[in-house]
């Protein structure tokens, strides 16, 4: 197709150049003929000047003018045609260049079309390799995620083990500290309990001595006078009632028997006035004084009975306290010592009331 077009263009170009050459040759020949004719006419005119006086010169000039105009028109048309031929030649050259470029591009295109199946095969193989690489990359990503999870689990286990070791060490250290503290507290508790027991024993011994002295004085006074109203001991220590007496783990019955045995064996029951020791004889008193003495005797007898009851109940309570004291001694090792105030019994309250009544009667 392009080859035939090129041949046609070349033939057209050749024809145009040949036509242009023929036109230029014809124009040159016409010019030569005209020049020859003019020279010939001038020569004939000069030669036959004498013979051609009868010719029409104006008609000849008109003819010459006409031929001159025709020649000028032909010359202008030939010039325009030459210019058009040059422009046509330029357009033909440009078209030829374009055609050559198109031919080259088409040849290249045909070559590329010939290579197209190979390119398609290469593209298909490339797509297959890309798909395989994509699957492998996904598998690799999954494996990397699994590896990260495994690494995180290992780190967590490592931290757990380290923290467990720390916790175990801390727990062991705290247990050791607790054992040491327990031992120190036990030692301190034993020391404090021993000190407290010593102090309580000393206080109890001192109180027992004081109460024994007071009790002996009261009993002697009661044995002599049959009264317990007057205060025998005028010591600077504060007065205490029988309810405040705190008895320790001693055999009170034996002590009371040892303390009251010889006096009671000789004299019997002190509550009976007939067995009381002989009192000094006094002068006769008025009936009022007799009534007062009778009241005091009855009160003294009631108080002596109350004293005996208190001693018996205190002995029973002491026997119960001995069993309780053993339990308290075992509990005191585990629990801190708490000093409780002495509990007041009903009998102690009755004794206090009787003492207060005796004091009021003395005041009266």
From TrEMBL:
GO CC aspect terms: cytoplasm
Record's compositionally biased regions (Basic residues): 280-293
Keyword Coiled coil found: yes
Biased composition (Basic and acidic residues): 294-305, 334-352
Coiled-coil residue spans: 137-202
UniProt keyword Coiled coil, yes or no: yes
Keywords associated with the record: Coiled coil
InterPro entries assigned: Dysbindin
Disordered, as annotated region: 259-364
Protein name, UniProt field: Dysbindin-like
Family: Belongs to the dysbindin family.
């Amino acid at each position: 197709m392009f080859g035939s077009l090129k041949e046609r263009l070349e033939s057209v170009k050749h024809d145009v150049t040949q036509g242009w050459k023929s036109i230029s040759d014809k124009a040159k020949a016409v010019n030569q003929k005209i020049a020859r004719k003019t020279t010939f006419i001038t020569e004939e005119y000069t030669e036959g000047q004498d013979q051609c006086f009868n010719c029409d010169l104006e008609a000849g000039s008109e003819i010459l003018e006409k031929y001159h105009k025709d020649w000028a028109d032909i010359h202008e048309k030939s010039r325009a045609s030459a210019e058009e031929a040059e422009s046509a030649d330029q357009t033909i050259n440009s078209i030829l260049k374009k055609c050559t470029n198109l031919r080259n591009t088409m040849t290249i295109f045909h070559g590329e079309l010939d290579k197209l199946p190979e390119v398609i095969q290469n593209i298909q193989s490339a797509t297959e390799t890309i798909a395989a690489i994509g699957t492998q990359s996904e598998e690799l990503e999954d494996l990397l995620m699994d590896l990260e999870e495994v690494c995180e689990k290992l780190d967590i286990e490592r931290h757990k083990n380290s923290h467990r070791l720390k916790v175990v060490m801390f727990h062991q250290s705290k247990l050791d500290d607790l054992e040491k503290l327990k031992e120190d507290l036990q030692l301190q508790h034993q020391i404090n309990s021993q000190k407290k027991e010593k102090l309580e024993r000393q206080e109890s011994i001192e109180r027992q001595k004081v109460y024994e002295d007071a009790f002996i004085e009261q009993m002697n006074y009661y044995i002599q006078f049959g009264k317990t109203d007057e205060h025998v001991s005028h010591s600077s220590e504060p007065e205490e009632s029988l309810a405040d007496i705190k008895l320790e783990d001693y055999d009170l019955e034996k002590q009371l028997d040892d303390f009251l045995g010889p006096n009671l064996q000789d004299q019997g029951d002190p509550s009976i006035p007939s067995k009381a020791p002989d009192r000094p004889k006094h002068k006769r008193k008025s009936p009022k004084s007799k009534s007062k003495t009778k009241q005091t005797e009855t009160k003294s007898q009631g108080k002596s009975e109350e004293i005996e009851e208190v001693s018996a109940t205190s002995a029973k309570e002491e026997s119960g306290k001995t069993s309780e004291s053993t339990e308290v001694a075992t509990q005191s090792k585990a629990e801190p010592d708490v000093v409780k105030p002495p509990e007041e019994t009903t009998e102690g309250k009755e004794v206090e009331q009787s003492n207060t009544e005796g004091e009021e009667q003395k005041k009266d």
